[in-house]
Design brief:
mainly beta; Jelly Rolls; Immunoglobulin-like; 2 domains; five-stranded mixed beta sheet; 3 helices; 20 strands; 4% helix; disordered N terminus
Length: 294
């Protein structure tokens, strides 16, 4: 399976973005196609599975789910075969598509098509379901803004739900994944590409990315020259400090001794510019801190 973690990253996002930012994976997966066990569809098959990932390097908690949009380009000549799950960085899942038109555990569902040129947009504010019956057999589902859409068959169950409940309170940073399942033999399915769009206002204001201090760690001076000087305001068993440059690339990583209160991080070799310090304390990401290296 070919996957690519590719993102379009604007550094303004790391320090409080004002416009929507797009993270995407444009590498198509190989085909997912079921293998027959005792029949051609549903629980009569061993489903084919493919996965595609997007890495988002920006720390923050989603406070407005309607500001997050997932756009998907799929190819399938029998969409009733298709189940599609979105997986958060923490490992929770929501099903976006589940065997549309399928009414029985052995049903093959609807025979309409997904084509890569017709983008399916999923957002918590959307209420329209994918209408395969309205499109007609062998007709492509049009581009549109859709809510998660499920067939009535009791198999497979997967992870039905609403995007609002799923996204609210999730951490934005990390690896987001789409997992494509094909529950029918004969016609393969593919994730052609997909993207996550994060609009202004998506993240908690209390995680203000313009801050130079937080409740756990504060920066003694900014801009900095040779050393990043930090006050640690909380006791900890483990603390790691990741520094990202303006392209979103990690350029330095430091592990700090237990319960140290004053920390000096050598940044002499870093070029002048804007950076983001992402601390992880006791295994949990805490408020990031921006700084300028002179």
């Amino acid at each position: 399976m070919k996957t690519l973690n590719f993102f379009v990253f604007c550094f303004s996002l790391a320090f409080g973005f004002t416009n929507a930012q797009t993270f995407q994976n444009t590498t198509a997966t190989t085909d997912a196609i079921a293998e027959t066990r005792i029949g051609g569809c549903g629980y009569n098959v061993q489903p084919g599975v493919q996965m595609s990932a997007i890495t988002i390097p920006v720390t923050g908690t989603i406070s407005d789910a309607s500001k997050i949009t997932v756009n998907v380009a799929l190819t399938s000549s029998w969409l009733g075969d298709v189940t599609l799950d979105l997986i958060s960085p923490e490992g929770q899942a929501i099903t976006l598509i589940r065997r549309i038109g399928a009414t029985l555990v052995t049903s093959c569902g609807d025979s309409s098509d997904f084509v890569a040129a017709n983008i399916l947009g999923f957002n918590s504010a959307n209420t329209t379901l994918i209408d395969a019956a309205g499109a007609g057999p062998t007709v492509a589902i049009p581009s549109g803004n859709y809510a998660p859409t499920y067939g009535n068959a009791p198999y497979p169950t997967h992870n039905p739900g609403t995007l609002a409940a799923f996204l609210q309170g999730k951490q934005l940073d990390g690896d987001w994944r789409l997992i494509l399942y094909d529950y029918g033999t004969g016609e393969p399915s593919t994730i052609a590409s997909w993207q996550i769009i994060v609009a202004n206002g998506a993240l908690l204001k209390t995680s203000n990315l313009n801050a130079t201090f937080g409740s756990d760690i504060s920066l003694k001076q900014n801009p900095v020259e040779d050393y990043l000087l930090l006050d640690i305001n909380s006791k900890f068993n483990s603390l790691s400090l990741d520094i990202y440059d303006a392209s979103g690339k990690i350029v330095k990583k430091e592990n700090i001794l237990k319960n140290v209160t004053d920390v000096r991080v050598n940044v002499q070799t870093l070029p002048a510019g804007m950076y983001l310090l992402n601390p992880t304390m006791n295994g949990e990401k805490i408020q990031p801190i921006k700084f300028i290296k002179k």
